[in-house]
Design goal:
The protein is α/β, with parallel strands linked by helices and 323 residues long. The chain folds into 2 domains: 11-65, no CATH class; 73-322, Metallo-dependent phosphatases (Purple Acid Phosphatase, chain A, domain 2), CATH 3.60.21. Helix content is 26%, strand content 25%. The protein has 7 helices and 17 strands. Strands 4, 5, 6, 7, 13, 14, 15, 16 and 17 form a 9-stranded mixed β-sheet that branches. Helix 2 packs across helix 3 and helix 4 (97-112) runs parallel beside helix 5. The longest helix is centred in the middle third of the chain and has 18 residues, at 144-161. The protein is globular.
Length: 323
């Protein structure tokens, strides 16, 4: 793509720019004709086996398709750290130990310049009042507006701590509740500002999955059950990092192709608290914390976990840290 005064652009950067900025922006940034941008997009689609869609949609069979969220965003990391946290279920007035730990390590690695990205891996909000499930007896839950305000405040704290690191938000099933309810009840509001959850968190790039170096996939959920992490990497053929099940664990899998991992990123919320009243306070195999992915020369090292021990304390890399 480099020619004369034109600038070069790697395949992964091209896809990232196309899906987040659009073809016109690439044309200006790289100094190439718009037709060349679309030609490269088509070549990349054949190479990747998927459609590459700009933020404002692309022309498909004569019609304009405007997806709510890109299916895949690409991230290139040679050396550095990617933090993956999920299942925040942020409620008003609640700041958990896991959230404080996330801010602690985000600030630490951002200052050092080693933090490359933070991925909020789904279920930022709980959406208790717009759930398809019936309420638990007469339990009171916060109104949606208060949930959105709390989530905006917490995500704002993470945004400020990130420095120059990229910020992604892979949508979860709870995140989808707002648009699902509106689409069902008042489809006329489609496209109105504020009717989409992403309108409330503009600093974060929404998508269904983040692909790091083409062999590490971060998405909210895939397989279910106690062996989900094993089955995720077995069936996908790549390292798969998911949330949804709140179990916070790493499962290695090795074959002739080497070793890859299934990672569950746990929950930033606290088990046995109000957002999880539907469990009826039964014992749950959940852990509060988040995952840390470290890359060296483009290769993922063993994934690590920051785990909440009790109120105010987490353990990481053999140390107990108060947050």
């Amino acid at each position: 793509m480099a020619q004369g005064n034109q600038k070069s652009c790697s395949d992964s950067d091209f896809v990232y720019l196309y899906e987040t900025k659009g073809p016109a922006a690439i044309s200006r940034l790289m100094g190439v004709a718009l037709t060349n941008v679309h030609c490269r997009r088509r070549n990349m689609e054949r190479k990747l086996g998927r459609r590459i869609v700009g933020p404002n949609g692309v022309s498909v069979a004569g019609k304009t398709r405007t997806p709510q969220h890109p299916g895949r965003l690409d991230l290139n990391v040679k050396d550095g750290v990617v933090i993956v946290a999920s299942d925040c279920h942020y409620w008003p007035g609640v700041v958990t130990t896991a959230h404080r730990a996330l801010l602690h390590y985000t600030k630490q690695w951002a200052r050092k310049g080693t933090l490359k990205a933070v991925v909020m891996n789904g279920d930022v909000i709980d959406g208790a009042t717009i759930s398809r499930h019936p309420p638990q007896n007469w339990d009171e839950v916060p109104p949606l507006v208060q949930e959105l305000e709390a989530a905006s405040e917490r995500l704002g704290e993470i945004f400020k701590a990130c420095g120059n690191a990229k910020r992604f938000w892979t949508l979860g099933n709870h995140d989808s509740r707002l648009e699902a309810r509106l689409a069902q009840m008042v489809p006329e509001v489609k496209g109105v500002k504020g009717m989409s959850l992403k309108d409330h968190f503009p600093e974060w790039l929404p998508c269904w999955s983040v692909w790091v170096n083409d062999n590490v996939v971060i998405r909210h959920r895939y397989k279910n059950g106690i062996h989900a992490t094993h089955n995720n990497t077995l069936n996908s053929g790549v390292t798969m990092v998911t949330g949804h099940l709140h179990s916070l664990k790493v499962t290695p899998f090795s074959d002739y192709n080497g070793t890859r991992w299934g990672v569950d990123t746990g929950t930033l919320a606290e088990p046995y608290t109000e957002p999880f009243d539907y469990t009826e306070y039964q014992p749950v195999n959940w852990r509060s914390g988040f995952a840390v992915l470290t890359f060296k020369d483009g290769e993922l090292l063993d994934p690590e976990l920051v785990r909440v021990m009790d109120d105010g304390r987490v353990c990481f890399r053999g140390e107990v840290v108060r947050v």
